[in-house]
Design brief:
Elements: H1 2-19, H2 27-39, H3 51-56
Helix pairs in contact: 1-2
């Protein structure tokens, strides 16, 4: 079961990199994102609840999730420019 989970995470990370047209150097971020998304996705074996919901007793908020690999802007304060 754990080997299947590992394979699922690896395949999801590969898909994130491919869809985002990103280099392999973003592998760690892709795997981290894949696990984050998996923990916030409904699972049938958990009575249609998420792993996050089982741990925290509340539904996860996914309003902050964006497309992996999308362009982002960083704000640098005036005193650090």
């Amino acid at each position: 079961m754990s080997e299947r989970l590992n394979r699922t995470v690896v395949e999801k990370a590969k898909c994130l990199l491919f869809d985002g047209k990103l280099d392999k150097r973003f592998w760690a971020e892709a795997v981290s994102t894949a696990v984050y998304l998996r923990n916030r996705t409904i699972a049938c074996e958990l009575s249609n609840r998420t792993p996050h919901e089982l741990c925290t007793k509340k539904k996860p908020d996914v309003s902050h999730v964006r497309i992996f690999g999308s362009t982002a802007m960083v704000h640098v304060p005036k005193e650090k420019r």
